[in-house]
Amino acid sequence: MQNGQGNQPPARVFSEMVPPSMAAALLFLSLFWSMRHPGTPQAFAIVAAVFAIPQLFFPFTWRVLRSPYVLIITGGLIALSCIFGSLFSAPFAQVYVYSAPWFLVFCWYFSLGCLASGLIFTRTSRFAPAALHLSFVLIAGGFALDGFLAAEGVFRTTMKTAPGVMPPAYGHFAPGESSDTYITDRRDPGSPLPFTLKLNSFDVEFETLLRVAVTPGIEASAGQCRFKIMGYAVGEGDKLVQDVNAQDLDSALIVLQVVMKGVENTAAIPFDGGDFGPFNAEVSYEADPAGGRITDIMINIVQKVPKHYTSVVDVVVEGETVIKDAVIEVNKPLRFEGWSIYQADWGRYVSLDEWESLPGNMRSERQFEQYIKKNEIPPTSMFTISRRPGKWLVYLGYILMCAFSLALLAMPRNPSNGGNS
Amino acid sequence: MPLELYISLAAFLLSGVAFTVALAVPGTRAIRVAAYVLQASGVAMGLYYFGHEWLAVGYPPLRNLFESLTIMAILASGWNLVQAIFRPVAILGPMTGFLSALLMAGASQFEGPSEVTMPALQHSLWLTTHVLLIMLAYVAVLISALVAMALIAGRRGFNRVASLGVFSLVLSGCLGALVIILLRTWGVISLEDRASIGGTIIAVAFVGGSLLLPLLYGLASKLGIFAAFEDNPALEDFLYRTALIALPLTTLGIITGSVWGDVAWGRYWGWDPKEVWALVTWISLLEYLHLRRLGERAQLAAKWVLVAGLLTVLFNYFGVNFLLAGLHSYAG
Fold first, then answer.
1. Separation in Å, CA of A262 to nearest CA in chain B
2. pTM for this structure?
3. What's the Cα-to-Cα distance from A254 to each of A225, A228, A231, A235, A278, rounded to whole Å?
4. pLDDT surpassing 90 at residue B138
């Protein structure tokens, strides 16, 4: 380690220290200003960048930054800040920790330390460690660029709701619905997009675990669960019966035993289907032509968590369909002119108007489900949309980091001198 | 837990015992060979389960805590077997044998194979590369941190006691967690929410650790174990090389996760607790590699940073899964 000041005349040391001191004062002032005005970390980042980067050209700062202690200390501070931030909820930590000026200061100095170390390694022709340090600078640059230019939100669609959903859900498309605006939260008036997205169709596929005719004693297993159909009953608490008449349907139940993770439960499912634990029972039946006895009862036990959901969309620009029937699935986004559209969620909602028109008794969860089923109201699809121009810089940094960390691993080295090649 | 994994657990545990005997009693080559055979059988059994489940479900069984602990146990023992081919390290045998047994025993207390493959996880390429890389990285961090603890214990005075103290704390915490979960399953104790389970485990870790520390200290002094770690350049070299492998593995693990996050959720970094703690582990490895270049005192600090890395991995695995909510919540 060099401190670099031992043999220098005091005047030179002083002249070297003036510019960094001024920059430090400016950084401090901008930090102070930024803290007084929460939510303006970007402004601070600009000031920090403008005044911090030229510091590399001043010998004093250069000596400080190229020291490994800068990386060690700022790295340690970043790690401690991350631990601190993880104690809070992600949205809170994102605003008050990870976007806070003090955290950005640590990141800036870590990046500048990497830049200085990278340049030193380049001078000594040690390209693998140089590239490794500079790759971090690229990643940090990409993050910083996205700090200014990234956009992320959901499409503005008509507000929708369902029992227990308050305030109304936003961002959900019903089939046939289109949107050309995205919003970042409920209060956001929205920003226009250069295209319109139209949902043509949406399909949710659930995993069917068991599909049987209702016969007492039928047993099947799926994963760690075992299902046994005990029979069906008319009215709760009645004995299991073999025959159910059409007029009994309102009080008829299918009695099902579920053994899940070693715990045995008996669930009674209404004849028109219902939920139990993480499963859903879909029941179908046929009555004899005379309309008396119920015959051919079938039960499908499906998992509530969807196995798959698929949206089919059109992208329309100035009234012209430029992409027809594009498929969006989880892990399969649609990319269009720098924007990426992701399958984010799904729901069983109706528009607020339709909700208002429902009679009071239809707003209970059970009645609402029946209403959805009876009227064949399709599920809604939700997308997130984002544009991150800094992503490619980040990815370039990733590629360099992967390639050169492996290259460094393959290089012969002498551990006794600290692992230098 | 499936039968194959119980067999695997027994094989790991026995291999740990056999490696310890082989290490303690000189001239017992047959026992060492038997230990390797046992460990290889445990790995083979685990891999058989892994392959079988993959074929049955259609996705690699890396979807929840049970499955990832299982693969971590297999990888830890696999590491020793691969190491034995290139450059055997005597201490690694008992270390990986017992570590794998502990991980597998931990897995046995969780919910078993995942019944649901969430849509976000239905991408075999990313699921396999990201989870396997990050698991392998964590195994490397665990091994290097345990070796760092052993080397710190090789020094006299406060560092020895502190290192053994951390080891006692972690060990009693892990064993205590196993016992508490077992007692809860059997209905002996009733702990309902995760916070009270977590609090009890932490209390058990501290109480058990403080009881275990003098016991381990006395035993290690009597058996001359500390002396074996004193001024051991071969082990120092192994530590350095393991950390050097752990860093690119962690880097690749984080990067593949980041790219997958971009494909599935539209963001390459979301400051999710899991991501944040992986970043902290990555920084601890960076700190170790930079600190060890700065002289004798810094070398000691570097080893302590690796020990802190072990704690970050443990917290990322259990603390984040049970106490903090995030996009990776399905992992718990």
1. 10
2. 0.80
3. 18, 11, 6, 10, 17
4. yes
